[in-house]
Automatic annotation (TrEMBL):
SUPFAM superfamilies: Acylphosphatase/BLUF domain-like
Organism of provenance: Brevundimonas guildfordensis
Protein name: BLUF domain-containing protein
Cited Pfam families: BLUF
InterPro entries found in the cross-reference section: Acylphosphatase-like_dom_sf (IPR036046), BLUF_domain (IPR007024)
Domain BLUF: 4-97
Length: 133
């Protein structure tokens, strides 16, 4: 069976503010390529020094990516906040979407609360993408 899962994590950026834009561009560039190969899609944002990433793909592909992420020195304190089986992807068209220049109050509240509510994260990230379009 082709199980599909979605997970949301947040992590603390270790980037200097002035390096954030270039680093985000680099991450999205690499992720778009690797994620397409690994059947992963999702969305990534950086708000108030915190990365939030929604990832969707097979359970094993997500596990492997999370291992890589743990060794990436551009961020630290990775907290997986929710992970669940999904019927279909929310971000099918994206190797990795990054509405990074937008700030969202809803997202800020979810980050502060470390919310375990997958639906709320999905909605907040989708909203950001719609606003960025
Ligand atoms: C916040 C953040 C999000 C990332 N998202 C992805 C991603 O979605 N897919 C991916 O392949 N790499 C992503 N990366 C990069 C990986 O950590 C890693 O550099 C990449 O998978 C290449 O693996 P390697 O450095 O072990 O060769 C991300 C890095 C950071 C800091």
């Amino acid at each position: 069976m082709n199980t599909l899962e979605q997970l949301v994590y947040c992590s603390r950026s270790r980037l200097a503010r002035e390096d954030e834009a270039a680093a985000m561009a680099d991450i999205v560039h690499v992720a778009a390529y690797l994620n397409a190969r690994n059947g992963i899609s999702g969305a990534l944002t950086l708000q108030d020094g915190m990365f939030v990433q929604v990832l969707e793909g097979s359970p094993s592909a997500l596990d492997i990516l999370m291992l890589h992420l743990h060794f990436d020195e551009r961020h630290e304190d990775i907290e997986v906040l929710c992970r669940d089986t999904i019927e279909r992807r929310d971000f099918p068209a994206w190797g990795m979407a990054a509405p990074s220049r937008l700030q969202s109050e809803a997202l800020g509240r979810l980050i502060a609360a470390r919310s375990p509510d997958l639906c709320a994260w999905r909605a907040a990230m989708t909203e950001l993408l719609v606003e960025a379009a």
